[in-house]
């Protein structure tokens, strides 16, 4: 598990305690926009795609995505390039193994973790993930500067996932299932069973304490609201105080 100062949230804490935080969203508008991603088949996971690690970050003119949020020297937006997905996966791998940097072969473990997360992330974003109806991978990148073109690797400093899901039968909160009574069951509109869920919040170690995580969360909230969601959930380790403070600050 990562250092408690990390905002990466891999699962339950060593004590077994997790908190589920959520907030009610006010619906401001609906959205008919959709983002197209190249499909990823299971057979693709046998080899890495051709990634160009010196690929330049997209300019503002080249990016034509869903929504973005400008703040300070950064921009939060949806990932578009495979290199952005890979860098997001690598940030998560580094955070996951951050407190275990002393281990032998840790770089090999991080590489394997990043590869698995890369393909899982791509599958999620094309709708191949259980009860997830749609998934967005957001990244925070450094703003464009005159006469400065950065590579993707040197530009991406944060990431998170936002998924639109539907409750499984018997769920009242994500992962919490209660037994149903057929007598008390009543039909509800399909949209009543949908919710938004945030996961994999991660900020590069050298870029923390700059408002990156909170602004990515604000963007996720805006996108969830635009998609018509009225509830937004996140799980957090019970002993991860910085992350808990972050979620309280952003309205959970």
Automatic annotation (TrEMBL):
Residues 193-252 form the N-acetyltransferase domain. One of its GO terms (molecular function) is acyltransferase activity, transferring groups other than amino-acyl groups. This is N-acetyltransferase domain-containing protein. Gene3D superfamilies: 3.40.630.30. CDD domains: NAT_SF (cd04301). InterPro entries: Acyl_CoA_acyltransferase (IPR016181), GNAT_dom (IPR000182).
């Amino acid at each position: 598990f990562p250092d408690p100062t990390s905002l990466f949230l891999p699962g339950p804490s060593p004590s077994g305690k997790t908190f589920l935080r959520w907030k009610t969203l006010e619906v401001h508008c609906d959205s008919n926009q959709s983002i197209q991603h190249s499909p990823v088949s299971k057979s693709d996971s046998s080899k890495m795609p051709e990634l160009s690690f010196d690929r330049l970050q997209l300019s503002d003119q080249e990016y034509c995505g869903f929504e973005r949020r400008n703040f300070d020297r950064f921009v939060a937006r949806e990932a578009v390039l495979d290199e952005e997905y890979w860098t997001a996966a690598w940030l998560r791998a580094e955070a996951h193994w951050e407190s275990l940097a002393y281990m032998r072969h840790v770089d090999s473990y991080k590489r394997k973790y990043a590869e698995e997360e890369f393909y899982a992330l791509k599958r999620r974003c094309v709708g191949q993930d259980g009860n997830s109806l749609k998934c967005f991978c957001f990244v925070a990148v450094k703003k464009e500067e005159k006469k400065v073109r950065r590579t993707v690797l040197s530009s991406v400093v944060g990431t998170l996932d936002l998924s639109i899901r539907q409750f499984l039968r018997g769920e009242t909160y994500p992962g919490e299932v209660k037994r149903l009574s057929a007598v008390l069951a009543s039909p509800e509109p399909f949209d009543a069973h949908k919710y938004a869920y945030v996961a994999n919040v991660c900020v590069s170690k050298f870029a923390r304490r700059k408002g990156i995580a909170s602004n990515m969360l604000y963007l996720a909230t805006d996108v969830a609201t635009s998609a018509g969601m009225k509830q937004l959930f996140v799980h957090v380790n019970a002993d991860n105080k910085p992350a808990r403070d972050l979620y309280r600050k952003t309205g959970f």
